[in-house]
């Protein structure tokens, strides 16, 4: 069984290079837990220091998530305008057919890349949630405390966990794909988009597969409770589900 820390490192390495410093510093928090005296109940100073470290990591994750979400909202609006202009018959007639097709092809690539990055942000949210739950479980096991439940209840209210807006943008982006692949037979527009995705963004497949694995693991839990990981807000998309899930999340 692969340890969670190694699994997490693999997930981070598969993300965008410029995002990798924005993930939970699980390894460093694990060192903090190991450095505790281990007395039960934990020393107030030790617990305060650990909670401060967790709060700082949570704030970092929130800040990054909100920045990305804001950029996505702006880019989504820009893409809507680009599509409207590109599909306007007057715009198509104003330039040579080859030039117009090149412009539409560029929009297609941009939409698929945009969709892929938004899926990565959903994955980012889920990975960090799981990491926080895991490190708090280790803290409770080390100290005999009951810190995990109250902290995770506050995490459920954190901005990075509120993925409804990004999930909605993903669904709307898929509708955009249908608009810019009108010549494809019914049901094949998504397949054409996937071909573009594989050519444009090599990590797209692995990140979507990671999302599906997380959802499957949570769905299969028979002991769901306050400590359980909640279901993902994964967009309902047949072509996302065409990916095969990778390795399951380690339990330790």
From TrEMBL:
A biological-process GO annotation: cellular response to phosphate starvation
PROSITE patterns per the UniProt record, alphabetical: SPX
Listed InterPro entries: SPX_dom (IPR004331), SPX_prot (IPR031142)
Limits of the SPX domain: 2-153
CDD domains (UniProt xref): SPX_AtSPX1_like
PANTHER family xrefs: SPX DOMAIN-CONTAINING PROTEIN 3, SPX DOMAIN-CONTAINING PROTEIN 6
Protein name: SPX domain-containing protein
Organism, as annotated: Miscanthus lutarioriparius
């Amino acid at each position: 069984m692969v340890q969670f820390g190694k699994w997490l490192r693999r997930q981070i390495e598969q993300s965008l290079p410029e995002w990798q410093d924005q993930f939970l510093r699980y390894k460093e928090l694990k060192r903090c837990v190991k450095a505790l005296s281990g007395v039960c109940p934990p020393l107030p100073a030790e617990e305060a220091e650990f909670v401060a470290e967790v709060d700082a990591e949570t704030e970092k994750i929130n800040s990054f998530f909100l920045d990305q979400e804001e950029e996505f909202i702006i880019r989504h609006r820009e893409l809507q305008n680009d599509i409207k202009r590109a599909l306007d018959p007057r715009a198509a007639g104003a330039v040579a057919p080859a030039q117009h097709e090149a412009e539409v092809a560029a929009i297609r690539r941009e939409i698929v890349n945009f969709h892929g990055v938004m899926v990565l942000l959903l994955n980012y949210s889920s990975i960090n949630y799981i990491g926080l739950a895991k490190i708090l479980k280790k803290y409770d096991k080390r100290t005999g405390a009951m810190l995990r439940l109250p902290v995770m209840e506050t995490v459920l209210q954190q901005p990075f966990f509120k993925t409804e807006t990004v999930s909605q943008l993903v669904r709307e982006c898929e509708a955009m794909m249908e608009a810019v692949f009108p010549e494809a037979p019914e049901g094949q527009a998504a397949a054409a988009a996937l071909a573009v995705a594989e050519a444009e963004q090599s990590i797209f497949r692995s990140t979507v597969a990671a999302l599906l694995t997380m959802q499957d693991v949570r769905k299969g839990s028979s002991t769901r409770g306050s400590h359980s990981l909640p279901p993902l807000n994964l967009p309902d998309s047949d072509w996302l589900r065409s990916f095969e899930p990778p390795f399951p999340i380690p339990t330790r």
